[in-house]
TrEMBL record:
<dbReference type="InterPro" id="IPR017096">
    <property type="entry name" value="BTB-kelch_protein"/>
</dbReference>
<dbReference type="InterPro" id="IPR006652">
    <property type="entry name" value="Kelch_1"/>
</dbReference>
<dbReference type="Pfam" id="PF07707">
    <property type="entry name" value="BACK"/>
</dbReference>
<protein>
    <submittedName>
        <fullName>Kelch repeat and BTB (POZ) domain containing 2</fullName>
    </submittedName>
</protein>
<dbReference type="InterPro" id="IPR047074">
    <property type="entry name" value="KBTBD2_BACK"/>
</dbReference>
<dbReference type="InterPro" id="IPR011705">
    <property type="entry name" value="BACK"/>
</dbReference>
<dbReference type="InterPro" id="IPR011333">
    <property type="entry name" value="SKP1/BTB/POZ_sf"/>
</dbReference>
<feature type="domain" description="BTB">
    <location>
        <begin position="32"/>
        <end position="60"/>
    </location>
</feature>
<dbReference type="Pfam" id="PF00651">
    <property type="entry name" value="BTB"/>
</dbReference>
<dbReference type="Pfam" id="PF01344">
    <property type="entry name" value="Kelch_1"/>
</dbReference>
<keyword id="KW-0677">Repeat</keyword>
<keyword id="KW-0880">Kelch repeat</keyword>
<dbReference type="InterPro" id="IPR015915">
    <property type="entry name" value="Kelch-typ_b-propeller"/>
</dbReference>
<dbReference type="InterPro" id="IPR000210">
    <property type="entry name" value="BTB/POZ_dom"/>
</dbReference>
Length: 609
């Protein structure tokens, strides 16, 4: 016989049977001994079941059980077997945190504060700070409590480029109910960092203050004003090139182990000429689509993850090779926390989908995925306010090497010599003018009414790829560029981008610092990769060198990297301290075998090439 302190094994069949019987009793209203009221509806229940589901019900058993008003959904959860209401609360919290967006973050902040839910409150506050220029005019913001308002206005993390935005938000809140809120005038205005305002703004503002409060406010503010103000987080933003699928910086993993390593996301600031690292994607995610929206939100979608315990993954020579599965994941980058936050997954698993932001929605277009040709044609749309995906009209045909951009509230998809335009309001694809050349793996960017299609590889018929797309130039090779005018529906050639003879260039078109630019990676025989940023001069139809990028700052990105531009906070990122060796390969052009250098205190030898 088992001792009293020894737990007996649970009979799962009996437990399931018991729940089924309780469900039957509830539905048939058998042996019920308490009635719960939800508005005008009555729900006969069992005290024992309710008391077993939460400490609250246990505490009120016997004297308050005759008339308790609850949500009907709670009763449904209890009767179907989730016997811990505390778990329900945690699930509700996690659900609300996941659903926070620019439209509801202020309300979520108030809810988190009301119910003392610190996780919800902090997550909502970070979104309010991030979207502050957008949310401070919302009705919910103007109805915030005085305590929450002061907490927000005093934050160093507000994503504002000018302190005038904070001042305007404070005044709008005060003026919303000036009679009742005049008592908070000094405490609210003291959160504004006056020395960050322009002199013109200061004079105009103080002249407009009520006469009876003017002297008190001015004296109090200037007495408490620090000698040097701390800038808001938004004032420290730098526009950076974000490189997805950058090679790992650890040479031992890259060259010796030859196995799958976590994808590194590298950021390069052209102004500071510094390299930073974003948090690695969750679960060693690779080959995900990437997007930076006009509101400066960074997203990644789809991709593939390595299996933890794969079987039969040995290649030639017995070397270990990673095995992957495609995923439908979707993540938003929390720039303050330098962390990826999960959002509702896509409807389809996709590898390297094209992500485009158009008319307030995010579109995931095509990509390599399971399910055959039809699945590669599928297109789905993400509604950020509802945090949900829906299918839209599929691509006219399946493309493996398509490039997508948004221009003038339409989406343009290009591959080979074809161009299709998607009209969101009609949910229809229309074939547009064809290009003069047949190229794939190109990069594209929209700038005003023009779409630039840059580089890529020539396609011979349906067979595939022939060689880098280039045009003849006096001093060697160059990268081909074609431009599409969305108003005229026509393609024309543009000036080629200069490249050195015998180079193998990789180019990525981007809009950087309000200019159409390309980031170029060139590799030459027996040399390391070299980088440069070129800017397009439309009047001269020429590509001008904007700035070279030292290989001592930005090392080898490989050929498969993708590039986007976003404004990020250097103080929230990890600066990349590691620098490559001065001579990675021997001067005679041979392999670097036998050479050694130190990485993180470990001596690493380069293999023979």
């Amino acid at each position: 016989m088992s001792g009293l302190g020894e737990r007996r094994p649970v009979n799962s069949d009996y437990a399931v049977s018991l729940l089924e019987q309780l469900k039957f009793f509830y539905e048939q209203k058998l042996l019920t001994d308490v009635v719960l009221l939800v508005e005008d509806a009555e729900f006969p229940c069992h005290k024992m079941v309710l008391a077993s589901c939460s400490s609250y019900f246990r505490s009120v058993a016997g004297f308050l059980f005759k008339s308790i008003k609850l949500l009907k959904g709670l009763i449904e959860i209890v009767r179907t077997g989730l016997l811990q209401v505390e778990d329900v609360l945690l699930q509700c919290r996690d659900y609300l945190v996941k659903k926070i967006n620019a439209e509801n973050c202020v309300r979520m902040l108030s809810i988190g504060d009301l119910f003392s839910c610190s996780e919800l409150k902090q997550s909502a506050k970070r979104m309010v700070e991030h979207k502050f220029p957008r949310v401070y005019r919302q009705e919910a913001f103007l109805q915030l409590s005085h305590e929450l308002l002061v907490d927000i206005l005093s934050s160093d993390n507000l994503n504002v480029e000018k302190e005038e935005t904070v001042r305007e938000a404070a005044m709008l809140w005060l003026e919303y109910n000036m009679e009742a809120r005049s008592q908070h005038l000094s405490s609210v205005l003291s959160q504004i960092r006056i020395d960050a305002l322009s002199e013109v703004t200061q004079r105009a503002w103080f002249q407009g203050l009520p006469p009876n409060d003017k002297s008190v406010v001015v004296q109090g503010l200037y007495k408490s004003m620090p000698k040097f103000f701390k800038p808001r987080l938004g004032m420290t933003k730098e526009e950076m090139l974000i490189f997805m699928e950058a090679l790992s910086e650890t040479p031992r993993e890259r060259y010796v182990l030859q196995i799958a390593v976590p994808t590194t996301i590298v950021c390069y600031s052209p102004q500071a000429e510094k390299v930073y690292k974003l948090c690695n994607p969750p679960e060693d995610l690779q080959k995900a689509g990437a997007l930076v929206t006009p509101d400066n939100d960074v997203y990644i979608a789809g991709g593939q993850i390595p299996l933890k315990n794969p079987i039969g993954n040995f290649g030639k020579g017995g070397k270990l090779h990673a095995v992957f599965r495609s995923v439908d994941s979707f993540f938003w980058f929390d720039a303050q926390q330098n962390a990826w936050a999960p959002k509702t997954p896509m409807l389809c698993a996709r590898i390297k989908p094209s992500l485009v932001h158009c008319d307030g929605y995010i579109y995931a277009i095509g990509g390599d995925s399971v399910g055959g040709e039809l699945n590669k044609r599928t297109v789905e749309r993400y509604d950020g306010e509802k945090d949900e995906w829906t299918m839209v009209s599929p691509l006219p045909c399946a493309w493996n090497w398509s490039t997508s951009v948004a221009a003038r509230d339409c989406i343009y998809v290009m591959t080979h010599d074809l161009t299709y335009c998607y009209f969101p309001r009609a949910d229809a694809w229309v074939e547009m003018a064809a290009r003069k050349t047949s190229r794939c793996f190109a990069s594209a960017a929209a700038f005003g009414d023009l779409v630039f299609y840059v580089g890529g590889l020539h396609v011979v018929g349906n067979a595939g790829v022939r060689a880098p797309a280039s045009s003849a130039a006096v001093d060697g090779s160059s990268v081909a560029v074609e431009v599409y005018d969305v108003n005229k529906n026509e393609w024309r050639p543009a000036a080629s981008i200069p490249a050195k003879r015998y180079s193998d260039p990789c180019v990525r078109a981007v809009v950087l610092l309000n200019s159409l630019c390309v980031f170029m990676r060139e590799t030459h025989v027996n040399e390391r990769a070299k980088y440069a940023i070129y800017r397009y001069d439309a009047e001269l139809d020429r590509w001008l060198l904007r700035q070279p990028v030292s290989e001592r700052v930005l090392w080898d990105l490989g050929k498969d990297f993708r590039c986007a531009v976003g404004k990020l906070y250097p103080s929230c990122l990890e600066e990349s301290p590691w620098k490559p060796p001065t001579c990675f390969f021997s001067a005679d052009g041979g392999g670097g075998g036998g050479e050694e250098f130190e990485v993180e205190g470990e001596l690493v030898s380069l293999p023979h090439v």
